[in-house]
Amino acid sequence: MSDNDDFPGIDPELVPYLIAAAEDDEAEDSAEPEAEESERLTALRNLVETSLLAGPDPDLIAELMGEIRAEDDDLFAEEESDGTALNPADAAAERAQVRALASELFARAPEHDFAPTLDRIEQLMDLLGAPQNAYPSIHVAGTNGKTSTSRMIDALLGTFDLRVGRFTSPHLRDVRERITVEGEPLSPAQFLAAWEDIAPYVAMVDEASTKAGGPRLSFFEVLTAMAFAAWADYPVDAAVVECGMGGTWDATNVIDSGIGVITAISLDHQQWLGDTIEQIAAEKAGIIKDKMTIVCQRQEPEALRIIEQRCRETDSVLRLEGRDWEVVARQSEGNGQILSLRTPTAVYADLYLPLHGEHQARNAGAALVAVEALMGTEPLRSDLVDTGLQAVRSPGRLEVLRGSPTVVVDSAHNPGGAQALRGALEEVFDFGFAVGVYSAMRDKQVELVLAELEPVLDELVITQLGGPRAMPIEELEQIASDVFGPDRVHVRDELAEAIDRAAELVDLAKNPSEDKGIVIFGSVVLAGDATNLLAPDRRLG
């Protein structure tokens, strides 16, 4: 009998590594120059004094600065599996282990660095026993709105007493946000356990791939596998899985979902997905497999043609916005909006969604139709739908962090996101004077994003993101000056200094009676940093 007979369905090349397993860099942070650190602390002290940043003692700001730069925040008391609180030393040790693991995983190829193949992630799933197929799932692709829509699906399913797993990316503040169970990020202990469960098999696939001249599993592939395995162990009753980038070659596309959602498609990530709407739509439509139900938001004609063709080829049912479902009515109300949504089975009236913007209403419609498709053919209980939508949170998406002046943070980083942000600012906030704080990755369409928001921003403060993908501040300044004019553009190297300058500009505005605001936008990373700085106690997930 051959070795492979003991491991049916496993790639023969991986069997020796599986048998062997059965038998048997965290980089230091560079020191900041003393003068630069002094400037940062001065900016932070100014934020404290202007009440944008919680005090009480400016002398503690140095410690706070270290905390906001840490990847993981201590927001919750950790618990043992029986619900008893961990002692502080054990909780701190777990958080340190998570930080070390995150550093190790980030050393792998980043999520945007992917090859057109699913071979490695498929091999890993085979070794793990296909955990991604242990529960029904809803697969979410698109350019804008994926994360918010995924959160809405999660919240709606949860109101029907289902235990739901959710996978979204990128994370805003903590890598654990990417993998949730029952609406909460994995605890440090759960996150570490998820890695320990798959680590031997990751090593097998890594070794086999590198021996054949290929790369190791990427950061995103490993996180995807951790999510699928954690949910199978939990276990969950259903999962909502957001694509990282594209669809066809995205690591999440190993799932066999019966339902897919395609949110609005626009130009983004052209370096990896293609230069035209058609090319990008073809990548997104790669999640469409045989006999699925596909819930699709309104699209550009060239994108819709691709999606319709793919549905015909796979004998999938297309539920299209404007034809099969729609937002019938919406009205701003308090910290959100009142909606009426028409779906293929019913009209749901007077639903409260605690998020702003027409785009979020459309995301809610797509989420509701997807949940209907998963639950069956009958209308859902309207009271449970309302309860689910009322529970939705979408951190970093038109989120108000502070008042007086109002500080809004949004992850808008492409023209479509900028258009949605502008619409919400005009509809909901209607600032008499507004200052933007902006930074971006080097692959983004900075000129188009800024041109969309220039009419609603009086001044703009440019700042620098960290990391190799960040656009240099000098390039940002040049583009911003071309769009806004040099007199309206201000440059600060650090986010704290940029917010401080924005607060100064708001204070200098001529009309003291008009509503004033600071709008921080351009990147999920920037949104996360701003949240850590201005609202560090805000819950994760």
In total, the number of strands is 17
Profile the largest sheet: 8 strands, mixed
* Helix segment tally: 18
Unreliable parts: 20-34, 54-62, 67-77
**Alpha carbon gap, first and last residue:** 50 Å
- The percentage of residues in β strands lies in 5-15%
What is the subunit arrangement here?
single chain
Which sequence of strands runs across the widest sheet? 4-3-2-5-1-6-7-8
Query: Rounded to an integer, what's the Rg over CA atoms?
Result: 24 Å
Query: What percent of residues adopt helix (DSSP H or I)?
Result: 40-55%
Calculate the mean pLDDT score and round it.
86
| Morphology | globular
SS-derived structural category: alpha/beta
GO biological process, one term: folic acid biosynthetic process
Pathway: Cofactor biosynthesis; tetrahydrofolate biosynthesis; 7,8-dihydrofolate from 2-amino-4-hydroxy-6-hydroxymethyl-7,8-dihydropteridine diphosphate and 4-aminobenzoate: step 2/2; Cofactor biosynthesis; tetrahydrofolylpolyglutamate biosynthesis
Domain Mur ligase central: 234-370
GO molecular function, one term: dihydrofolate synthase activity
Which secondary structure elements does this structure contain, and how are they paired or packed?
Layout: H1 15-23, H2 34-49, H3 61-69, H4 88-106, H5 119-128, E1 137-141, H6 146-158, E2 164-167, E3 179-181, E4 184-185, H7 188-211, H8 219-233, E5 238-242, E6 259-262, H9 270-273, H10 277-284, E7 293-296, H11 301-314, E8 317-320, E9 326-333, E10 336-342, E11 347-353, H12 358-375, H13 382-390, E12 399-402, E13 406-409, H14 415-429, E14 433-438, H15 446-453, E15 459-462, H16 473-484, E16 489-491, H17 495-508, E17 516-521, H18 524-534
Parallel strand pairs: 1-5, 1-6, 2-5, 6-7, 7-8, 13-17, 14-15, 14-17, 15-16
Antiparallel strand pairs: 2-3, 3-4, 9-10, 10-11, 12-13
